[in-house]
Write a structure and sequence with these properties.
The chain is an alpha+beta fold. It has 2 domains: 90 residues, GIY-YIG endonuclease; 33 residues. The chain has 7 helices and 5 strands. The strands form 2 sheets. A 3-stranded antiparallel sheet has the order 2-1-3, sandwiched between helices. A two-stranded antiparallel ribbon has the order 4-5. A hairpin with a 4-residue loop joins strand 1 and strand 2. The longest helix has 14 residues. The radius of gyration is 25 Å and the shape is elongated. The chain starts with a strand and ends with a helix.
């Protein structure tokens, strides 16, 4: 007998939303786990639903389904994409797809990082005395592995 999976939506009074799935018989059981994890002081990997629990939270059933895990993950992912929610991970996406989506949604991140860290990421020079060439400090270990450098150091 296949387990029934419930896809649910949690909403707090401020309008924050979280989409999840469970095989618990009652949604209140899953809600209790979310609430417990949100209130714990232990250093655990909390799910983003903890952002909802600073005020009253309601849980509602979106869909009940049976099927294989992959189909259920895709269905949950569809709801996460349709609803503006606090979920960080979209179920059914690969790591590569998640990364590509993040880069697409944060186009200025790498430019800003380069601007802030310019002095630490580039600009420092290294002079190799045996080869008599100057290079960026970040390239010196690659240079040490070259045949030209190895021949001159023998």
């Amino acid at each position: 007998m296949e387990k029934i999976t419930k896809i649910y939506l949690m909403t707090n009074e401020k309008g924050l939303k979280y989409v999840g799935k469970t095989t618990c018989q009652y949604l209140s059981q899953r809600m209790a786990v979310h609430k417990s994890q949100a209130k714990t002081k232990r250093n655990i990997n909390k799910c983003t639903s903890h952002l909802l629990f600073d005020c009253e939270v309601k849980i509602e059933l979106l869909e009940e389904t049976t099927g294989d895990d992959e189909t259920i993950k895709l269905l949950e992912g569809k709801y996460i994409q349709e609803i503006d929610c606090v979920n960080k991970c979209v179920a059914g996406r690969t790591f590569k797809e998640t990364k590509q989506n993040w880069v697409k949604n944060n186009p200025d991140y790498f430019k800003e990082y380069q601007r802030k860290n310019h002095s630490t990421t580039s600009g420092k020079k290294y002079y190799c005395e045996c080869c008599e060439i100057e290079m960026l400090n970040t390239s010196k270990y690659r240079h040490f592995k070259t045949d030209a450098h190895k021949l001159k150091t023998k």
